[in-house]
């Protein structure tokens, strides 16, 4: 394909120009975890640099805001302990809850939230707008979400949290390299599996090549995504989190780091390409809890607890007691597992609308369309959903709240149409089995780390979404801080290492290959091709032959198609390099899928050639790495981190 836009490239083109940077702590990714890591290390008096592909002021999954924080168990109103919070794992994770990092989050996120308040973040109802509300503590002015008895999920005004973090980074002297994408890790002696001593990066506006030498490196880049689905001009946005390519995974995979749980994937819920505005319609999920839904005749849609009891009022929904707790899953056959996966997107651990709503609509009990009955709720419950939650949740302040209000929507008067059953499933959008997500939401794989959050590469720490089973704003913030504490201690006691020129030159040759072609395959076509491989050979049902064919296709594309990739400017070069990372992530997923020789309900994982569902012998973390360019698989016990309380006390450094 030949690009001919008729527009002159507006930046100087500096291909292969090298800039070297020495720093104590290098942070890869300037999202929530990355900014908190940089702030923490800078407060230790160390030289810190952030390398961010976008613009740090607003980049990352939490860059556009957050409306709730937690599990904030140490706040003075909470009735939940850190141990209890960790026993309630993220949705869909079951025994695969990565309890170590979630325990760290539970222990430290209240102090982190107070630190956010010191930077100017609003975490209290200081204007007394909601004085006396059921979800508010009038002494502290804290506001709570979802469970008003346990009070460990806090409502916050987080639309500006990311700009505040950015300003704090600048105040502390953190060097920020925006529009600069990290592309490869540097290791001692240039050896796979060696100590991490820095990284190389590409400026996506100028094409300049950066060499960062560091004593400690923290990877806080995003999860992998665009492996099965890719956003095109026809389907629109089809990833819930922005522009994920898994670069942090891919570069560490090439460097020899160990990963786990990478075989995990499931049907797309929020990002199939036909979804409606996230949190922009009436539903019963997350931001919208505990909204009342009615049908076209004004008949209320019942809510029930997970044990089947009907929630007769708004108060019941937010005072669920034990009714919101799920039942223990029974052993299943492959056929039962496949049947479950078709409707898995409706399963939740909290009260929700009736699970058989579709059948009851078809039977005529309820009439379409459905509506969010905000006017029928109390003023405080209505305003906290439409004003605070929708007004601060990422992706909703401008496109939803401001746009709807400017168009004349009045939450005290107007019903808001829900898109449930209008060609989709509301926020939970069902999709084809092969249209999957891996890293879009919480139950996903990541780095194997120890209690210091150090990966299996010495000197490389992981935080935020790179950790297995991670997905919340507070988890990113806390693990960023925690990893930086440990990385700072490490960096203070070690000297800079000599870089390998041969390793740097190999990476330059890999990056700049596409600029040498005059025309050829463009990055979007490459991404689509890789998605087709994963849809065909790593879909909902798998076996050894399919997975091996998928690997053969990846090898063929890498050998015969990638050399034809064409990039006419630094931006397109950056997008092309992303696709190279997606290819490596695909290979990591396929190899991990080969290594798990059993089905799993909690992982939505089906191996037709190994039909046992969750047999006890496979209740473990499958691990995978490259060693001397060979694939090495192994396993770890589910609780390899040991006792949470004693090990946290031993390692946290607090």
Low-confidence stretches: 323-329
- Strand percentage lies at 5-15%
Number of DSSP helical runs: 16
Which outline best applies? globular
Write down the Rg: 24 Å
Share of helix, binned: 25-40%
By secondary-structure content and strand pairing, the structural class works out as: alpha+beta
Average pLDDT metric: 89
Distance between the termini: 56 Å
Main β-sheet: number of strands, strand sense, barrel status? Answer: 7 strands, mixed
Kindly state the number of beta strands. Answer: 24
Annotate the secondary structure layout:
Elements: E1 18-28, H1 32-43, E2 48-51, E3 68-69, H2 82-86, H3 99-118, E4 143-144, E5 154-155, H4 161-171, E6 175-177, E7 180-187, E8 196-203, E9 209-219, H5 247-255, E10 259-260, E11 266-267, E12 293-294, E13 303-304, E14 310-311, H6 314-318, H7 334-341, E15 352-353, H8 357-362, E16 370-372, H9 379-392, H10 397-406, E17 416-418, E18 436-437, E19 446-447, E20 460-462, H11 473-491, H12 501-512, H13 523-537, E21 541-542, H14 544-561, H15 570-595, E22 606-607, E23 620-627, E24 630-637, H16 644-651
Parallel strand pairs: 1-2, 1-9, 2-6, 9-20, 21-22
Antiparallel strand pairs: 3-5, 4-5, 7-8, 8-9, 10-19, 10-23, 11-18, 12-16, 13-14, 13-15, 16-17, 23-24
Helix pairs in contact: 1-4, 1-11, 3-11, 5-15, 9-10, 13-14, 13-15, 14-15
